[in-house]
Amino acid sequence: MDRLTIVMYHYVRPIADSRYPEIKGLELVLFKEQIQYFKENFHVVTMEQVIDHLDGRVQLPDKAMLLTFDDGYADHYQYVFPILKEQGMQGSFFVPSAILKYAKVLDVNKIHFILACSDFKKLVPEIFNLLEEYRKEGYNIEPDEILFDKLAVANRWDPKEVIFVKRLLQSYLEEKLRGEIVDRLFLESVGVPEEEFSKKLYMNLEQIQEMKAAGMFFGLHGDRHYWLNRLPEDKMKEDIQNGLDYFRTVIDSDYIVMNYPYGGYDDRVLDYVSKIGCKLGFSVEARHADLGKDNPLILPRLDTNDFPPKSEHWRELW
After folding, report:
1. pTM for this entry
2. How far is CA 137 from the centre of its chain?
């Protein structure tokens, strides 16, 4: 069979009773229910099986499924790993190497927790006030209303104000400026020193090696979780290569898989990951994959929320 369902996860934790009950993720109890649903309705396969299928060495079962986990959260070691191990299922984990090298919190995660700790209707005016400060310092920043019109477009998960904050601070502003703004907002709204927060938020290398030894799969997610398609070519290659170099001990050179941060790729990125030996790549396009037709370097994924107990959206796309 060539149809493959790939599921994408980020935070998986007991959210409601945590310090950050507004963080967007999957409640642990719902994850357990979902894994049972997958056990009854799909065949969870390994990444190696998928690559071997594409190389003509094996056949995949009907309703084959891959489970993918982005960004290297401690959740994945503490909560996800024991459940998958108990069920005899493989998870595929994609960790930006910078989180381990520098004990820093990625800007994308700082933004998640800023939003979780803030009223977004108050957060947007606060950001506008900060932008005005930087304009007075000489930064060339478009007027607030133009920025908002350009960037504030709701999607199926977030209202337009949240999308505005994410787009503005993840990629739209120049890196130095958005980094300063994110750091100020993070310190103000979260109030935990970055190194301390980082150690609690992410897995460490020893945990990753333990998971690898137990049969979990690890692939590439770059170094600093950049939009790779928005980087100059030399910086794009450097970021991917840095991630690969750091994880040489856990990435099998015969089974290199790239997971593009934010789903951001272009022809330059695809060409480079192909040259370094990638067999598969994952985007964030929301549909089932067809291994007989899809480019293996840009396979689509469905979100955990597309499946029970959250929804039956996966059936509409079947």
Report:
1. 0.95
2. 34
